[in-house]
Amino acid sequence: MVTTPTPNPNLHVTATVRGYFTPRECERIVALGKSQLAHDATIMTPEAAGPTIDRSKRSNSVTWFKQGDAATQALQAKLGRLVQDVNKDVYHFDLAGFGEALQFTRYESIGDTYTWHQDLGIGNTSTRKLSVIVQLSDPATYRGCDLQIYKEGEPAAVERNQGTVLIFPAWTLHRVTPLEEGVRYSLVAWISGEPFR
Ligand SMILES: O=C(O)CCC(=O)C(=O)O
Ligand SMILES: [Fe+2]
User: Any coiled-coil ranges, and where (predicted)?
Assistant: First the structure.
């Protein structure tokens, strides 16, 4: 049987929402993140049974915001509204919601980095459909640590402004270049769903 599905024209798009969070809101999120324990960030590889630490690929630390906390719920509500709107206009995915805890990402040591990767992978990362990143730091306070998206063979830098939200399909290749000066924080959320449709 041959059918011709309707094309989905925006799968390459990174949705950029400038100033969705105010600098004050960003500072509050940073303070909340910094008040909690940091863990070495891990990666998933098909070779390893579970999450592994590989500093050549990912050198930074993360804090998972506690599920159910009032502050977490408020953050998820605000992000969720935006994601629903963007998904309706841009991606048209079947989404179930936040599949895992919000990740507060910390680049605090010179050289902290995350090399090219996709967020959609194996194990519990396999249900991720959209990646959502909030730029929490004032770009004047750090050098390097550029979030870049792979576009037609080239790294394309994305908006660095504090409070900007970036949304892209979770298979999109992206990286964070090494931190050269200062510190950078980001908030990362993944919106998950049943196998792709
Ligand atoms: O810190 C960022 O902007 C991106 C982090 C990231 O790509 C990830 O944690 O998967
Ligand atoms: Fe990522």
Answer: none
**All residues with CB under 5 Å from ion ligand 2:** 119
Ligand 1: distance of its center to the CA of 144 in Å? 14
Distances (CA, A) of 149 to 26, 46, 53, 104, 124: 22, 23, 23, 20, 23
Q: Among 135, 176, 184, which is best to mutate for testing ligand 1, by the most ligand atoms less than 8 A from CB?
A: 176
Q: Give the CA distances from residue 196 to residues 6, 128, 193, in Å, rounded to whole numbers and listed in that order.
A: 15, 9, 7
pLDDT tens-place string over residues 62-118: 999 998 899 999 999 999 999 999 999 999 999 999 989 999 999 999 999 999 999
Tally of structural domains, the chain: 1
Q: Which residue has the higher pLDDT, 2 or 120?
A: 120
CA 143 – CA 83 distance, rounded (Å): 29
Nearest ligand to the CA atom of 134: 1
Confirm whether 86 is domain-assigned: yes
CATH code where residue 109 lies: 2.60.120.620
Ligand nearest to the CA of 62: 1
> Could you tell me the residue range of the domain that residue 103 belongs to?
15-44+54-192
Q: Is 114 in the pocket of ligand 1 (CB under 6 A)?
A: yes
